[in-house]
Specification:
By secondary structure, the chain is mainly α. It folds into three domains: about 100 residues, no CATH class; about 110 residues, CBS-domain (Roll), CATH 3.10.580.10; about 130 residues, no CATH class. It is built from 14 helices and nine strands. The strands form three sheets. The chain has a three-stranded antiparallel beta sheet with strand order 1-3-2. Helix 3 packs antiparallel against helix 4 and helix 13 packs across helix 14. The two termini are about 40 Å apart.
């Protein structure tokens, strides 16, 4: 079973299940090499994307995270920083759990294992943004304003960090700050003449909590909680792009759900609609009075039945159509977990293609 195979039609199933054929992390040669290095006292490194790849995954879906964390716990290994708390392209270090005092052990005081905690954690941190990990261009306080302007023009930046080293953030200089000074006819010679205070947030800050600060100040710098180095800058533009990245799939899926409802609306009796509800919840079955009361998985269960398919009168293959619709269901589960890694272009294409197919079927039925 691949990591894109459906788990029955349970919409609460993990969004990206780990391959069942792999029963132990030892079957992944890359991770086995890491495990052996850690046993020898070494501290090997890899990026999060590589770690996911060893498990046959591309993104940090709930099931994948739980399985990886479980195997890390079993091997007595921790990642620093935690692989669920950083940008997917960030480098992490593998260490023995017993020697990392500030990292929770495989089981905490409340009896909760690392894999259980990993499955529960869902905060999107500012460190998960690429911009928070790409470093910063900077100038020194004693540099000329002309140098700062040249650097901003050369890189199409609106602001720069003012730093004396990778750890000391003296302030920031921006087009806005320069404009303010010039409007008061201040003599600008050195960067410090136009420098303003800089806002820096720890990389463990929740992205949603950081949003208000970013909007208010236009940008914030991000500082590593591990070594206090300034790792990046997140601007209001970065923020809007990230929310577009996360929200666009919601819009596509919402459109598809409306199209499917239009496709099957009025074609089936209430009894037929109720028949696809889970037997374990009879009360919910009674509440279903229209197509709008069904879940996406229940739409699929209706269409899968040959006798129901005939009632739709569609001149396309039922098996192929249901397979494509099931792929959308899997993507929908991914999206509803609000994964910071988002969905990839292949999944976007699947949503777009299926939406176009529904459009064409609707046009043909008129």
């Amino acid at each position: 079973m691949s990591d894109e195979t459906a788990v029955a039609y349970d919409e609460t199933a993990p969004a990206e299940p780990v391959p069942e054929a792999v029963e132990s992390v030892l079957e992944y040669p890359e991770f086995e090499e890491i495990r052996q290095d850690v046993e020898k006292g070494k501290e090997p490194k890899a990026n999060v994307r590589e770690l996911l790849g060893w498990f046959g995954a591309r993104r940090r879906r709930t099931g994948v995270v739980k399985r990886i964390q479980s195997e890390l716990d079993e091997a007595g290994i921790v990642t620093v920083p935690g692989f669920t708390k950083v940008w997917i392209g960030s480098e992490i270090t593998f260490k023995k759990a017993s020697v990392e005092a500030d990292v929770p052990s495989a089981q905490d005081d409340e009896g909760e294992t690392g894999s259980e905690k990993a499955a529960k954690e869902s905060n999107i941190l500012i460190s998960m943004l690429g911009a928070a990990n790409c470093g910063v261009k900077s100038v020194k306080p004693q540099d000329t304003v002309e140098k700062a302007i040249t650097v901003m023009l050369a890189h199409d930046f609106s602001q720069l960090a003012v730093m004396t080293n990778d750890y000391t953030l003296s302030g920031a200089i921006s087009w806005k700050a320069i404009g303010k000074r010039l409007s008061h006819e201040n003599n600008l010679v050195e960067v410090k003449d136009a420098m303003e205070p800089a806002i820096a947030l720890d990389d463990t800050e929740s992205l949603f909590k950081a949003t208000k600060t970013i909007i208010e100040h236009d940008f914030v710098f991000v500082r590593s909680t591990v070594d206090r180095r300034v790792t990046g800058i997140v601007t209001a533009t970065d923020l809007s792009e990230q929310f577009q990245f996360l929200s666009e799939p919601f819009l596509l899926i919402g459109q598809i759900e409306n199209q499917i409802r239009n496709l099957i609306n009025g074609k089936f009796s209430i009894e037929t609609l109720q028949s696809v509800c889970a037997d374990t919840d009879p009360e919910r079955s009674e509440r279903v009075q229209s197509v709008a009361d069904l879940t996406f998985g229940e739409y699929l269960r209706i269409i899968q039945k040959p006798e129901n398919w005939k009632q739709l009168g569609l001149r396309v293959d039922r098996v192929v159509f249901c397979a494509e619709m099931d792929k959308v269901r899997e993507i929908r589960n991914d999206v509803m977990h609000f994964d910071p890694d988002g969905i990839d272009e292949e999944q976007y294409d699947q949503l777009r293609r299926f939406s176009r197919l529904l459009d064409e079927l609707e046009a043909l039925s008129q």
